[in-house]
Amino acid sequence: MKDIIQILPENVSNQIAAGEVVQRPASLIKELVENSIDASSDKIEIYLNDSGKKSIKVVDNGIGMSKNDLMICFQRHATSKITESKDLFHINSKGFRGEALSSIAAVSNLEIVSRRKIDKLGHKLKIKAGKIQSDEKVVTSVGTYVLVKNLFFNVPARRNFLKSDTVELRHIINEFQRIAIAHSEINFTLNQKSSEIFNLHKTTIHKRISNIFGKKIEENLLPIKEKTSFVKLKGYVIKPEVSKKTRGMQFLFVNNRFIKNNFLFHAINKAYEGLLPEKYYPGFFIFLEVDPSSIDVNIHPNKIEVRFEDDQSLYSILISTIKHSLGIFQVLPTIDFENQSSFEIPYSKRRERPVFPKIDLDKTFNPFKPESSKYHSKISNKSDTLYKEVGSSNLIDSKLINEIFNEDNNKIFQIMNSYLITSTRNSLLIIDQERAHQRIIYEELMKKITKPDNVSQKLVFPVSFIMNDAQKLIFVNLKNTLVEIGFRLEVEEKFKLKIVGIPSICTEGHASKIIEDLFDEFNNDFEIKSFSYADLIAKSISKSTSIKKGTLLAKEEQRNIINNLFDCKEKLLSPFQKKIFFSISKSELKNKFL
Predict the structure, then answer these.
(1) Mean pLDDT of 414-431
(2) 373-594, what's its fold?
(3) At a CB cut-off of 8 Å and minimum separation 6, what does 86 contact?
């Protein structure tokens, strides 16, 4: 019988390794930039074409390589970082396995040029699908550049799994940000075709964070610092009041290597316990420095997962350090002893000056002739009108169409400053005010997009917003849709965004928050789960500007929400597919008292 076990050809094994190391353009950039950092570079430039699908070029001014090193570095497990097994437990470099270059070369057309300071000329290699095509001497500056073209050209199935240019670019920017924050001592640039996305100069960690995420973040960074025999800890945590519903501002580094560790993330969340609203996440930029021998980074090809020798101690140190910083800066939870709603100001009246009440007497009123009173007639007419308006709208089903609000039953109540209760002829309705308002805003905005009317309200005081480099890209994609919805925008020097008009459904106070939340939403919605930019924008604005739970509403506001909700095409679900209200029938109520 013929033997069935065989050694895989080198090109096949390299492609298999590439599947673990190089999953998309972003992971390729991570490997190449880390090599540049290990080469003692203080200036690294990245150039993209079609978000890395067509080409990626990484240029550094590091120590460079000799011709022999250049010829060997593309062989599997060729490395200058380790020589024996015990070196695996004292790793200070970014890379060490010697798999990245061989894996990249196996699935692309690659060109590499490198020169050391002691050499007059550099050397250039061209490699296709792992095989060297040419080798020559060239005039070049000290350092190395790697040009990768047509990634996965020989593995079409994997290339087909790549996402749109926008999505792939977001992954690249994420990877770039992680590396740039960890190495503020290095100058970085990131370019897409002829557009510069980032140009970061050597600076402090604090300034690097500001340069990436915008100056506004500076005032919300709280420093943390601790030194023990086990770990040196430093960095910044973000004030709880500006926390987000996404994890986009969570950066944890160990020995300047970005990592993900659920156990340590739990410790950070524990430190914020009682300070964050539900479903909000803390933001942080935390750097841990530990003895390399006390961690194991050799447990996953991408080296993001790290195993700690004493994670329990680290857990405790993280909690106490963060709590100490939050305490020093007097960031304490607000204790609400169930405030009496009677002392709260209704949402729509918060900016109005109090008006002395006027007494208006009806001199024609006769208690024995109620029909003669103008007040009596007003109430009756109002009741009739409400029934006609709401009753004639297209409601949830035919049963409710005929039931909603009769003359004697049009009262509305607000409970817990969060829910509106009203009734039909045969049932009780309990409505979530926030979700109802989200639905109203969403449908109003979607109408503007499908039938643009170019109506917007001009701001008395225009709002300025300085976009960071990542937000510039987002703005380019969303600008046209924002204008269709009713925004009036001007872009000034250095990409300072000026908001001069907003949709009529929004209030002036929301102008800045709408844009900020929209950038956050788009920044984290990589796959664009919404069916279009318009849908994403409308959802984001509805979430930002809707009346929140816990807000006391005036009677008029309560009635408007209910009337407008039942005028929507979709009444059952919010834009985020959450139930807006439920009903309790008369029979169900009756059964409760049996």
Answers:
(1) 89
(2) Ribosomal Protein S8; Chain: A, domain 1 (3.30.1370)
(3) none
